[in-house]
């Protein structure tokens, strides 16, 4: 093989190679051109494409425009008005700074540029093909710029082969514009494809309004605003309620100093904030903005400028996570407004009942307490209840408000210990916020030995008793773990526990995890354990069955979860195994206990695996079903 000599690439070849890094598809060209418009101070941007952008891309704006000299210079590589020396990169605030966008696009397409400054008498038009300027002339034009790109990749057929279908390329172009539009709410955007207007976005005052125009009122109504500053770093934006989720993270948008970026660390922080709130494989919608001094972030990482490096990445991660988690905590601790009964004032503030109030409600407030039956509530289903009797054999017993009040006074069931600290409730009350309570709603009954029906002011709530108890249990386990260790309930006498011989060695290796979860266990020979205690949160319970279920789950996962959050994953599984199951008929004391504990629990709207704890049926929905 003959030796090849080193030579300098021709300018056109070098530009085409650089274009391959900057312009991967039509959407990439649109991104570069629209960012130039934004840097030019445009208040209105219109984008039009044909055949997904392969045949035609037009970007028109009302920005500051360019002179003839600047227009010609803009087509040369590394020509820019935004950077003069290396130090400028540490203070860059504009989208562009490399001076490669127009040169890259012009080198792989036929380009027509029209531009005019506000004080010029007329505009200038440049015709470019494959990077060569073929014609320059004056043209009539309103102040601003208009870039027309035809036959993209006409001289790079290898890149053309990687083009997707027209609908796919059109969707990619729309996504690019949507990302930029979310961050630039005071700019009007218009996008048309093949002669059809896809969207028109007016100037708006808020991010929520822009979200509503882009993705509809239904999603916008389920978004939660957040805004927090820590020193020189500000985190703000919108994130979806925990009840909303998508199969893919397509509606998660992240920005650094208003620049759209795709940063794994920020995505991890968002995902972690929703841990235990969304089912596995589901994702929230979010528009996250991180604003910080330019010297704290390096945007000169990738030619497409969609990747960044943070100087203090760990601090940014924790800040984003904590801000989102606190916002979600506020949301999940609130009940649906239409279903909440207004909480009674505290005993110290409650006025004495008047005779008029008692007469107005039929005297219910004055009924003397009666002994509360501990018999199970009748089920609305046909499954077996306690004692083998079927639910259909028992009459339906509706529970009155007075009964609920009295039931709350009996000892708590389900092995729950009453929380001694009501600080969350008192803090909310002192802040002037109503304290939302499931226990303030009227218990109607239990359905299919698995769901608790509650009546609110304007609808019905169904609570999944397993999901509710699982969340309560998980939060208690996690709280104890963070406070120093999960409390252990010693057994009266140690119980031998035989192991699966095939998994005995793995089980022995997992003893530290078992002990951390509250199981007091010791080796008892080569293939057995001595069970001396179990997590106190489940007492009284079948400790052997609980340990057996946990070992089965750990075995299915290779006995050891690795990485961040591994112990919390085990606690989710433990809470699931130890919680109420569907099929357990509950009496009034147990229902009241569960509702009270749920009221004191954070993130109460979802189980730790992300399933909903409750679903709502508004009165208007029921009326429509009955055609009222």
Short description:
This protein is an alpha+beta fold. It folds into 4 domains: 11-201, Heat Shock Protein 90 (2-Layer Sandwich); 207-332, Ribosomal Protein S5, domain 2 (2-Layer Sandwich), CATH 3.30.230.10; 374-469 and 583-625, formyl-coa transferase, domain 3 (2-Layer Sandwich), CATH 3.30.1540; 487-578, 2-Layer Sandwich (Ribosomal Protein S8, Chain: A, domain 1).
What does it look like?
The protein is built from 20 helices and 22 strands. The longest helix is centred in the middle third of the chain and has 20 residues, at 313-332. The protein is elongated. Helices cover 32% and strands 21% of the residues. Residues 337-435 have low confidence and may be disordered. Helix 6 (166-183) packs antiparallel against helix 7. It has 4 domains: 11-201, Histidine kinase-like ATPase, C-terminal domain (Heat Shock Protein 90, 2-Layer Sandwich), CATH 3.30.565.10; 207-332, Ribosomal Protein S5, domain 2; 374-469 and 583-625, formyl-coa transferase, domain 3; 487-578, Ribosomal Protein S8, Chain: A, domain 1 (2-Layer Sandwich). It is an alpha+beta fold.
């Amino acid at each position: 093989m003959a030796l090849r000599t080193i030579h300098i690439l021709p300018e056109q070849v070098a530009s085409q190679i650089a274009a391959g890094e900057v312009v991967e598809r039509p959407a990439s060209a649109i991104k570069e051109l629209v960012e130039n418009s934004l840097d030019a101070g445009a208040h209105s941007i219109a984008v039009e494409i044909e055949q997904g952008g392969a045949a035609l891309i037009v970007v028109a704006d009302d920005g500051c425009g360019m002179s003839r000299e600047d227009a010609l210079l803009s087509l040369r590589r590394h020509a820019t008005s935004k950077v003069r020396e290396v130090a400028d990169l540490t203070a860059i605030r504009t989208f562009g700074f490399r001076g490669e966008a127009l040169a890259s696009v012009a080198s792989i397409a036929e380009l027509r540029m029209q531009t005019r400054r506000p004080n010029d008498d007329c505009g200038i038009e440049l015709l470019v093909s494959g990077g060569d300027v073929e014609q320059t002339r004056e043209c009539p034009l309103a102040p601003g710029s208009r870039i027309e790109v035809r036959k993209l990749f006409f001289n790079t057929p290898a890149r053309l082969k990687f083009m997707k279908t027209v609908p796919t390329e059109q969707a990619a172009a729309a996504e690019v514009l949507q990302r930029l539009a979310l961050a630039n709410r005071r700019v009007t955007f218009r996008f048309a494809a093949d002669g059809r207007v896809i969207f028109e976005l007016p100037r708006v005052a808020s991010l929520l309004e822009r979200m509503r125009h882009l993705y509809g009122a239904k999603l916008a109504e389920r978004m939660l605003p957040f805004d927090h500053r820590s020193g020189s770093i500000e985190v703000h934006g919108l994130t979806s309620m925990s009840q909303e989720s998508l199969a893919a993270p397509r509606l998660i948008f992240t920005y650094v100093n208003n620049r759209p970026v795709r940063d794994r660390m920020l995505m991890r922080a968002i995902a972690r904030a929703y841990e235990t709130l969304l089912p596995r494989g589901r994702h929230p919608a979010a528009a996250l903005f991180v604003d910080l001094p330019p010297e704290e972030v390096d945007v000169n990482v990738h030619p497409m400028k969609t990747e960044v490096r943070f100087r203090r990445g760990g601090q940014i991660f924790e800040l984003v996570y904590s801000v989102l988690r606190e916002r979600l905590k506020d949301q999940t601790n609130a009940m649906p407004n239409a279903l909440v009964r207004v909480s009674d004032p505290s005993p110290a503030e409650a006025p004495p009942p008047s005779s008029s109030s008692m007469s107005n409600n039929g005297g219910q407030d004055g009924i003397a307490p009666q002994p509360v039956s501990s018999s199970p509530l009748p089920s609305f289903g046909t499954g077996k209840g306690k004692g083998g009797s079927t639910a259909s054999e028992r009459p339906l017993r509706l529970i009155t408000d007075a009964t609920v009040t009295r039931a709350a006074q009996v000892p708590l069931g389900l092995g729950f210990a009453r929380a001694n600290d009501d600080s969350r409730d008192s803090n909310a009350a002192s802040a002037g916020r109503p304290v939302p309570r499931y226990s303030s709603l009227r218990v109607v009954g239990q359905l299919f030995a698995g769901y608790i029906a509650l009546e609110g002011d304007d609808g019905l709530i169904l609570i999944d008793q397993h999901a509710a108890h699982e969340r309560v249990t998980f939060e208690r386990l996690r709280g104890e773990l963070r406070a120093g260790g999960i409390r252990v309930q010693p057994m009266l006498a140690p119980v031998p526990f035989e192991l699966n011989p095939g998994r005995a060695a793995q089980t022995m290796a997992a003893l530290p995890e078992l002990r951390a979860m509250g199981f007091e266990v010791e080796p008892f020979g080569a293939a057995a354990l001595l069970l001396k205690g179990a997590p106190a949160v489940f007492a009284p319970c079948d400790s052997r069955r609980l340990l057996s279920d946990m070992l089965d789950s750990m075995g299915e996962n290779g006995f050891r979860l690795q990485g961040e959050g591994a112990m919390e994953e085990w606690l989710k599984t433990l809470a699931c195994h130890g919680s109420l199951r569907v099929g357990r008929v509950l009496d009034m004391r147990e229902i009241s206990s569960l509702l009270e504990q749920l009221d004191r629990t954070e993130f109460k709207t979802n189980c730790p695996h992300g399933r909903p704890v409750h679903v709502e049926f508004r009165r208007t929905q029921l009326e429509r079903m009955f055609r009222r």
